Amino acid sequence: MVNEVADKRVLVVDDDPSLLKLISMRLLGAGYKVESADSGKQALGIMETFNPDLVISDLRMEGMDGMALFGATRERYPGMPVIILTAHGTIPDAIEATKKGVFSYLTKPFDSQQLLTATADAIRLHPMGSDDNRQTDDSNWRSAIISRSAKMEELLQQARQVADSDVSIFINSQSGTGKELLAKAIHLISDRASAPFVAVNCAAIPESLFESELFGHTKGAFTGANREHVGLFQSANGGTLFLDEIGDMPLNFQVKLLRALQEREVRPVGATQPISIDVRIISATHRNLEQAIQDGEFREDLYYRLNVVELRLPPLAERRDDIPLLVNHFLNQILSRSRKQVTGYSDEAMELLIAAPWPGNVRQLQNVVEQTVALCSGPLIPAELVQKALRDKPSSLPSFARARDEFERRYLADLLKATTGNVTQAARIAGRNRTEFYKLLDKHHLSPEAFRE
């Protein structure tokens, strides 16, 4: 047990010195890192530097009592689990506290096993993560990846090992697992971190625009090409180009991409001379490319050029210990931009989330969190809402309107990325006048300013 809890921190708060010492000794003996405070105010001061995973507090204390400390803790650490200690006569108060979001309560006197079980359950179901400012300078590159699972840790170590080399990396994963987050993390820990990271979704680019988008074009290269366009390879020069959903790249363009990678140069459409490029390629897809090669849909030589190092990003079902961490992360994001007074999920609701199959991976989990928060009418999200959200799975094929909207949004976003927010240039590539183009941007809540360097 010591190895499992060695990095977990517990803050114990009680104005009874003997009980404070007893609880601290029991937790220290189990391998936890422990700090103690004899008042709520002292506890808040300790939190500034100790960053606990769990607070265990007496309910009745002079000055700031346990519930006041719970409220102040939630303001600073919204996902922090709190266990309340209570005398027999104050059990009704403790039960009311759990309805407000306190993890659980222990009735005095309690034995060591009760204390250790409650502590382990609180940290397991409501872990604190990277939102708690625990990232060191050395780990900032991976700060966007919310995880504590052994499988993800192994993957991130592999990513770090290959980051400084210039070999092409292929990320093999299901949809919704966070391929772009991993690619960006690799870029940030590499020698290319100060240069651009450019991401493009190959599934969102019309076949006729592939060469122009990736390689660029000269003025007058084709009808509507009223000015020179810098392609994504040039935009990423010196940095990293992330080609997501590479399996959806048209077959007739694959040979051109292979030549560009081999010769380390691109020729914009309409140009007579090639342009040298220095770009690190990271690609990803949810498709089985080996099967696509057999079906004649993907070039084998390009596959081996892209897949020098393969990283397998595990599906959410293989990293279930990350689910509470991700749930709290998404919950905090939602609450930061809404007026909802939600303190968290009930233990039963969290157990359901941990046990769910998650065919849509992290993207589906985020959707479930958003839905349950929106429908919740009390401080704690109950298991019933989670069950309903899990039953209301989207169909395998979206409606035509939804698919069209999704394509439009991705296409417009990629256009703005490629033109670094130049609306005039993006509108010309899209074959729309500026007024129509602005209406499309407004429809999809896209701001050109956000894409400008």
Mean pLDDT: 86
| Helix-strand category | alpha/beta
Stated plainly, the CATH topology of the largest domain is called Rossmann fold
* CATH uppermost class of the largest domain: Alpha Beta
Strand order of the largest sheet: 2-1-3-4-5
Helical fraction: 40-55%
Largest β-sheet summary:
5 strands, parallel
Radius of gyration based on Cα positions: 26 Å
The second-level CATH architecture of the largest domain is: 3-Layer(aba) Sandwich
Q: What is the 3D shape?
A: elongated
Count of separate DSSP helical elements: 20
InterPro entries: AAA+_ATPase (IPR003593), AAA_lid_NorR (IPR058031), CheY-like_superfamily (IPR011006), Homeodomain-like_sf (IPR009057), P-loop_NTPase (IPR027417), Sig_transdc_resp-reg_receiver (IPR001789), Sigma_54_int (IPR002078), Sigma_54_int_dom_ATP-bd_2 (IPR025943)
Pfam families: AAA_lid_14 (PF25601), Response_reg (PF00072), Sigma54_activat (PF00158)
Keywords: ATP-binding, DNA-binding, Nucleotide-binding, Phosphoprotein, Transcription, Transcription regulation
Protein name: Two-component system response regulator GlrR
Structural overview:
This protein has helices at 2-5, 17-29, 40-50, 66-76, 91-99, 112-125, 150-163, 179-189, 210-215, 232-235, 251-263, 289-294, 300-306, 323-336, 347-355, 361-375, 383-391, 400-418, 423-430, 434-443; strands at residues 9-13, 33-37, 54-58, 82-86, 104-107, 169-172, 197-201, 216-217, 229-230, 240-244, 265-266, 275-276, 280-285, 309-312, 344-345, 380-381. With 453 residues, the chain is an alpha/beta fold. The strands form 5 sheets. A 5-stranded parallel β-sheet has the order 2-1-3-4-5, with helices on both faces. Helix 4 links the parallel strand 3 and strand 4. Helix 7 crosses helix 8, helix 15 runs parallel beside helix 17 (383-391) and helix 18 crosses helix 19. The chain is elongated, with a radius of gyration of 26 Å. The protein starts with a helix and ends in a 10-residue tail after the last helix.
